[in-house]
Design a protein that fits this description.
alpha+beta; Nuclear Transport Factor 2, Chain: A; 13-stranded mixed β-sheet; 13 strands
């Protein structure tokens, strides 16, 4: 009799406990969904504001007749475009779906940075450069119009960013999709412009983007394994909460992982390759208030970070300081040969030295042990082929990517002419000139064009 009476009570208690647990899980999921929705909304509205501001400033630039004012406007556009690209990367859309839009903002920032330096050296903008600015303005205005369509839809409650995050990521956006976000970004992806290619990520970044022969080896991993890898990469002792993020199906297929840290400094997004379980990139939304450490300290932190993660024989090449952060490009060095295709970017907070960004996409695409044969020319023979007007300061041997996606062994000569810095690349086998880069350097870093 006691057992018959006790069983319903136990079952009722279990049901209550399960119900409370389920409700608690539901509340946590709702809190997380709301948190992510707010994060996406913040990034999107900041992007919209930045694009609108860029459009306005470009229109002012076209009618400005004062060189000093032009320099100020160009500098503002450069920084706004850089910030817009960061916010674009925070949106829950597959990397492949935003490649052209991100590249447009990247090149816009580069071009305006280049023109800022030119006007800062008391040089007038050419007719062709002003025409380029006009084309940039037209494309930016079109981008702004398409973004405003999204603003109206989101404000009316017609769409939520969480719906995109929860959906399976497609290889490319579909213009026939019923989702207004996908429709509009499909139109945005058609934005393009032809103007001088400026290399923001250091030499050969445009060529590196064309590589498709992925070098990642290893077993295929699942989402749970990706969460463990991401937590270890960030530091398990820092993890307060971990959740699944969007997958990507671009050149490197990845699992996405969102991590909220215990220190309350914001969230971190980590992409882990489905094959081999390699961390492809990491980005933190940690706010940087003010620069407190030196650039040398930041570089030491970046190099220690790479060494701790198992990336050895990496040397710094180019860097760029922006809004309290320093982005440093590292390339692999095999013996005494610089391997430019194997590139990793590290972003360091100048407030506290934290690593808030990591991008090893190019490294994982290209990295391998290379069989570097003895070149047809000696260094001394190649040196004689360099234009004598270039005052050579340093020389090295390097592997560089070509337009076709192949690689070429070259001699690299860094030097100075007329107060400007250049890098000349000669084919190590026949001495032919392969490439010439001009280096623009200021207190914020260096840019190769």
């Amino acid at each position: 009799m006691v057992v018959r009476w006790l069983l319903p009570v136990v079952l009722a208690a279990v049901l209550v406990i399960v119900g409370l647990w389920g409700y608690n899980q539901y509340q946590q999921n709702m809190e997380y969904s709301n948190y992510m929705e707010n994060l996406y909304q913040k990034s999107f509205y900041e992007l919209v504001g930045q694009v609108g501001d860029i459009e306005t400033k470009l229109s002012k630039l076209m009618v400005s007749g004062d060189q000093g004012q032009s320099m100020i406007i160009l500098s503002d556009v450069w920084r706004q475009a850089d910030a817009a690209q960061i916010n674009l990367g925070q949106l829950p859309l597959g990397h492949l779906s935003l490649i052209r839009t991100s590249k447009f903002m990247n090149q816009l920032a580069d071009y305006c940075y280049y023109l800022t330096k030119k006007t800062g050296q008391a040089q007038m903008l050419s007719v062709q450069e002003m025409n380029n600015i006009g084309e940039l303005y037209n494309n930016c205005a079109r981008l702004n119009r398409e973004l405003k369509v999204l603003v109206d839809s989101i404000n009316s409650g017609g769409v939520k960013w969480g719906e995109i995050r929860q959906a399976k990521v497609k290889a490319e956006l579909n213009e026939d999709s019923g989702n207004i976000i996908e429709k509009q970004f499909t139109k945005i992806e058609k934005t393009g412009i032809d103007y001088p290619t400026l290399i923001y990520d250091g030499p050969f970044s445009e060529t590196l983007q064309q590589r498709r022969d992925i070098r990642i080896k290893g077993e295929t991993i699942d989402q749970k394994q990706a969460r463990d890898i991401a937590a270890s990469f960030v530091g398990k002792d820092r993890v307060a909460e971990i959740n699944d993020g969007p997958q990507t199906t671009a050149d490197i297929e990845t699992w996405g992982v969102y991590i909220r840290t215990k220190d309350g400094q914001g969230s971190i997004f980590v992409s882990v390759s489905k094959k081999g379980g390699k961390v492809v990139n990491m980005i933190s939304d940690e706010a940087v208030k003010a620069a407190r450490i030196s650039l040398d300290e930041a570089q030491k932190n970046a190099e220690k970070f790479l060494a701790d993660k198992g990336y050895n024989s990496m040397i710094p090449t180019y860097s760029q300081r922006f809004a309290g952060t320093l982005v440093i490009n590292y390339v692999y060095k095999q013996d005494d040969v610089i391997i430019y295709p194997d590139m990793i970017k590290v972003k360091v907070s100048l407030e506290d030295g934290d690593i808030i960004g990591f991008d090893a996409r190019n490294y994982h695409i290209a990295h391998k042990k290379r069989n570097i044969e003895k070149p047809g020319l000696s260094l001394s023979e190649a040196r004689k082929l360099v234009n004598p007007r270039l005052k050579v300061n340093s020389e090295a041997m390097a592997v560089i990517p070509t337009e076709s996606g192949a690689e070429k062994l070259c001699y690299e000569f860094k030097g100075e002419y007329g107060g400007d810095n250049f890098i000349v690349y000669l084919d190590a086998n026949n001495g032919k000139e392969v490439n010439i880069l001009k280096i623009i350097t200021d207190e914020n870093g260096s840019l190769a064009i």
